[in-house]
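S2.1 Query sequence (Tol-Pal system protein TolQ)
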Amino acid sequence: MTSDLSFISLVAGASPLVQLVMAALLLASVISWTMVFDRARVLKRARRAAEAFERRFWSGGDLGELFRELDREEGQATGMATIFHAGFREFARLKKNPDIEPMAVVEGARRTMHVAMNREMDGLENNLSFLATVGSTSPYVGLFGTVWGIMNSFHALGNVKQATLSLVAPGIAEALIATAMGLFAAIPAVVAYNRYSNDVERLNGRYEDFLDEFTTILQRQAHV
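Output structure tokens follow.
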């Protein structure tokens, strides 16, 4: 209990600028933790959706029926399902035109799938840049608050005749809290950014592999 009161008193006794730095770091930490949990939920759902769709796609069923099933799901499809739906729809539309070469039909479907995949990746990468920013800047923001607080502590020593540790210790302690808060905000953000960036890259690889495999299937169907 004493340590909590001591911590609160140190923060309350800090200079206004140091308090502003602490408040900014606390806000950044709260927002980054919110985004950490949000990205964990989004990426977990994306992995499960990819696994579920791969099972449906490679089950040997009719692709036209799969396309109609996704249509009936009324926009609930995500990830690979969205890429497949966009590509198959464009493929069917272009193939109705007898004047278009088969390879042009396939290429048109492939471009449409790339657009759909990029949109899906944008959704997965959302907020990762904020985590990277918090992870890279928070230690420096905290260090700025520490330097400012120590400067104020030593400046106060100029107004006394005899400098003692008891005079300078509280000011240095409150200044170091800013550094600690900067690290508290930065470390989870860096860990989460590295983990989620790797997850996004792996999903991107799965999407690209599926796009290539589905394009090969469309090439065969284009000549039928």
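Residues 150 and 172 are 5 Å apart (CA to CA). The chain has one domain: 2-222.
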